[in-house]
Amino acid sequence: MKSIRGRALLSVICLILAAGCGTLPDPTTLLKKPSMQSKQQAMHQAVTQFLPQEAKLIVPSGPADISALQEKDLDGDGQQEIIAFYQKETFDYESYAMILKKKKGGWTLLTTIGGVGKKVNYADFRDLNGDGTPEFLFGLGDDESTQRELEVYTLKNGVTKNLMSRPYTELAVDDLDRDRKSEIILLIHDREKMKARAELYTFQSGRLRQTDTLAMEGGINGYLQVTTGRARQKQRGVFLDIGVGAHSSYTALLILEKGKLKNVFAPDRPEGTERITFRATGELSRDINGDGIVEVPLLQQPKGTDHLPLSEVPWITSWYQWDGGKKLNRLFQNYIDYRAGFSFRFPESWSDHVSIRRKESEGKGSVRFDFIGDNRRTTLLTIRYIPKTQWEERENDPQSQKGKGVLLKEKGGQVFLAEFPQEEPRLSSRVLQEYQKRRVTREEVKQRFSIVVSPTP
Predict the structure, then answer these.
(1) Cβ(442)–Cβ(421) under 8 Å?
(2) Quick check: 138 and 122 in contact, CB under 8 A?
């Protein structure tokens, strides 16, 4: 799957490293691989001779696998061209892409494309017409801007031809109908008029044409993430994680059906609207379990947390897959704590029977998972995180050995521990039996615990 946004940090780092008027940055800061190879050095040397003064290489904001220097066979002659992205440090911050072709043992500059724009927002190479040779997609505009410009180029016989120039807010490119030709989906959002639409572009009769338009919800904050991937085993789609309200979001899913865009959770569906995927946070859709299919997150508020502000609620996340019809099927639940940096996947027996209490102060904290029976909370598990120095002190103190907890992980000077109830709870026989069904072992906790970082759209 292709994640469209969320690469701005890498660009910023590269720009900082490249600072300095007229100085070409160290290529190791701009190429994806950790060590320079002779091939990459040759690419960099080729680009250097054509790079204008007071210019520096830049990394496009997306997609994920793009870098400042690329090699692609754009004209299908069996030889790869070099594509380099750079920025002039002028008042208007002009951003460009240059295309170099190898001729007679040297390199020649075929063309330079680009213009005014603080960022190369998007750069990719996709086969749009099915001839086995990729076209060049080049998007200019700020990451913060809602109006950018996409240009699509093809290279034939040493000449670049512009196939399309269109404004966009976000975009997705994928072979949604599996015909070996990628489609372009442009999302256009007008905040002032509170209108939005999706435009479909496909290659037909030798031209790149707009073949469909679909109205979208316009009263939104913006698109947190636009991702393509499998919605089902044999169905690809475009997942839109859309920001609404102060911190909330929802997911829309676009698929291609008989050559037309279809919004799976559209408001005119008889059994639901787009907002069936509404959630109180900006949690993003993704392949959470590694099965190759994108899951949609929904949130459940634990019992006993109604008094908390929404930003402090320890939400339980339920992960769903589209069933291909009108429903979402729940796969599993977990608790994700980005602040502490961990997640815990619930056993099936925990679903809808567990509440959560969270405490934190001065770099340490705990998350307690309680079984709810007869409106009473009984602890099943506590995950505690403390500085590594405190853990080492406890290790060396014989008085603190009892009940100190099971070590789960260490990361960044932090230690994560699992603690289990030391005594049998006083419950009625019926509730105790239900409680016992939901007890977890040390090995289960270790398997279900994982370190996480906050996903960046």
Answers:
(1) no
(2) yes
